[in-house]
Amino acid sequence: MAIYKIFPTQDTTLYSEHSLMNTGLDAILEVSNKLGLDASPEVARYLVQFDQNEILDIFSNKINSNQYNIYLKNFIAEAQGLNQNTFLEVLPLAQEWNNGTGYYANDPSSQDGSSWEYSSYSGSNPWKHSGSYSNPSGSYNYTSSFNLTYGPAGGGNWFYDVSGSLYVSIGYVQPGYVLGQLSFSGSSLINFQLRNAKDFEANVTNVVDSWFSGSIPNYGFIVKLTGSQEFNPSQYVQPQFKYYSVDTNTIYPPCLEFRWRDYSTILTGSASSSIVNTVDLKMSLSENAGVFYPESKNKFYINVSPLYPTRTYQTSSLFTSLNYLPTASYYAIKDLATNEFVINFDNNYTQISSDVNGNYFDVYMSGLEPERYYSILIKTNINGSTIIYDDDYYFKVING
Fold first, then answer.
1. CB 333 within 8 A of CB 341
2. Residue 91: which of 160, 172, 12, 7 has the closest Cα?
3. Residue 146 to residue 392: CA distance in whole angstroms
């Protein structure tokens, strides 16, 4: 199974109250509606973009024809003001933009990159309010939203489908726009409640498919509150989300995570007789060099045998026989310092494969933060019991 992560080439936050300010090097991305000193609402939205060549390479040389899903993942630094259900929208941005070198509240403020009013730098390329993008496959509309009562026009823009309406469902992450005449669904809708986790994982497969096919250009995503919660002057509607940016000094930058199913097995017919049927196992991990570069892809093999094999009359050792885990077996990877899953068990995307040499799984090291240690866990189902083996299978990713 395969999980592959890429990280942003650029990201920044747009602030309506500081309409020319660039924050391209900030460690934080913000999406919020909060009241200023004059009790007027101030809105923040953020932009994040991933390299188109990396996306093309993943489709062409890694996923190939396998089943896949793609997720935008952001990790929370701080959340405030969530006294009611709060929704974020993730939408495909419709205009080229510039990261810039600014920080929030620099004095004087940096204006050399994207801001609420301009996509390139102060005075250059105002955000377009509406329009269309045409190519041989069709014409695609884009729109924007702002409130001139509380600030200038701007705040980015985004592609939308013909119906222009959101499909809203109570759930953590749900597909967004209802399909119209266009071939892609333009948004993922994320629902937050007071005690929910505030990290988010938005299924953006349809949008990235559209970038890959060339239906719309890849300018990245814009993340914003839903319209009813932006520019809301109520003191009771002040949600604030602060997520880590690509410039964070933590291990939580945003990422675009590709998951595809390339599971294969030889454990059919008579070969299934070599599957272990006891939870008392001796297990080890082979093909583990212990240290890997970020560019590496490694195939780990799992060696397994019964701890107490059934007695039989034979001329060779039972421990030289090749044994396999049940097909319902999965791997996960944890950061050793934080004890957090960086790749969690997944029935579709981390199922352990098998070949004539044993059980195996592939790991792309590019999605793991370098200069850190990681631990591999194995989960399997044997005789109705779910067992997780955590036997100090460690490795480290280092900078090249």
1. yes
2. 160
3. 53
